[in-house]
Structure to design on (332 residues):
């Protein structure tokens, strides 16, 4: 009884729900990584804050309509969350877990993929306007848009030197190349299929693009734009991620609830990791921990986020999320 009372008091002090992870870790498994997992719950317009050390949900905050992707500020103090169902970006204070302001992107609509650069600029694809919006947070959140002119401008990847951005354009079967210094589109790279997931290797030399139709991921040279490889994956590779050390490329396969692991150097498939093994789990966004030992997979159909030990492929636990939790980020 006394322990239950203590747990309840701690939950109230945390300022939110005391939901715990479904722990599936085997005996002797490494301790969870530190930090706070943020989850954009697109089915209920909220942002979840989950303590990774304990697996407990600390609280939720209201967002704009249909929150999706999330970016952490360079100083680690704030998070930017897109409102895919509208035309805005919400900025949250991570210590107080509160929304501090909203950036209006009008007339640009449908923000989805997002990145927060070291110079303070925030990039967000604005799908319904066929553009990418660039917000200068050092100049009163001034917004400048670069038109892609492509259908379904959905996800974005940015080179390590922040000179270029690449957008995956689902409906047009292309990737747009954006010069961030000049604020203009350089070209459209024809990749075919329905590209959505996109990632750059940490050295910025190779771009990996998934295909919702083809159960494949393609690699392109970011200087010559030549196609380097095509690798088969699980069904519907909706997201692509590169490991922090650059050794691995991983796809999140919506169609079968798995992860496909590819050797980034040889561009050869290595193994598949079964997370749920079910399409009904609605597995979408994936995210590596900073040390590369964990990978997190948002299961939008289950309202959970699976934590996977990358080396063994074991699901360690399932963390709580809100309705249709999708976009992920880890705050230090």
């Amino acid at each position: 009884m006394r322990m239950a009372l203590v747990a309840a008091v701690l939950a109230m002090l945390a300022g939110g729900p005391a939901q715990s992870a479904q722990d599936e870790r085997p005996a002797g498994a490494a301790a969870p990584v530190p930090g706070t997992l943020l989850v954009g719950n697109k089915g209920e317009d909220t942002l979840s804050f989950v303590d990774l050390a304990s697996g407990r949900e600390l609280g939720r905050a209201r967002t704009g309509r249909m929150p999706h992707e999330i970016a952490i500020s360079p100083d680690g103090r704030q998070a930017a969350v897109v409102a895919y169902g509208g035309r805005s970006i919400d900025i949250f204070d991570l210590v107080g877990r509160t929304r501090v302001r909203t950036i209006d992107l009008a007339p640009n609509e449908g923000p989805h993929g997002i990145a927060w650069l070291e110079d303070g600029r925030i990039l967000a694809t604005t799908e319904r306007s066929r553009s990418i919006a660039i917000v200068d947070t050092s100049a009163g959140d001034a917004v400048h848009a670069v038109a892609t002119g492509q259908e379904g401008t959905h996800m974005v990847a940015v080179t390590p030197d922040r000179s270029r951005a690449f957008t995956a354009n689902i409906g047009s079967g292309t990737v747009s190349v954006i010069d961030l210094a000049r604020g203009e589109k350089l070209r459209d790279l024809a990749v075919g299929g329905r590209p959505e997931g996109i990632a750059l290797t940490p050295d910025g030399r190779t771009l990996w693009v998934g295909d919702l139709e083809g159960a494949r991921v393609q690699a392109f040279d970011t200087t010559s734009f030549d196609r380097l490889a095509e690798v088969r994956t699980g069904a519907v590779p909706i997201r692509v991620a590169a490991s922090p050390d650059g050794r691995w490329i991983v796809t999140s396969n919506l169609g079968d609830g798995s992860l496909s692991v590819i050797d980034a150097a040889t561009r050869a498939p290595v193994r598949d990791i079964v997370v749920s093994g079910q399409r009904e789990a609605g597995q979408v966004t994936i995210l590596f921990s900073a040390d590369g030992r964990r990978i997190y997979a948002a299961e939008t159909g289950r309202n959970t986020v699976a934590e996977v030990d990358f080396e063994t492929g074991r699901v360690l636990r399932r963390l709580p999320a809100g309705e249709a939790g999708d976009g992920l980020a880890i705050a230090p």
Q: What stands out?
A: The domain at 40-331 is CATH 2.130.10.10 (Methylamine Dehydrogenase; Chain H).
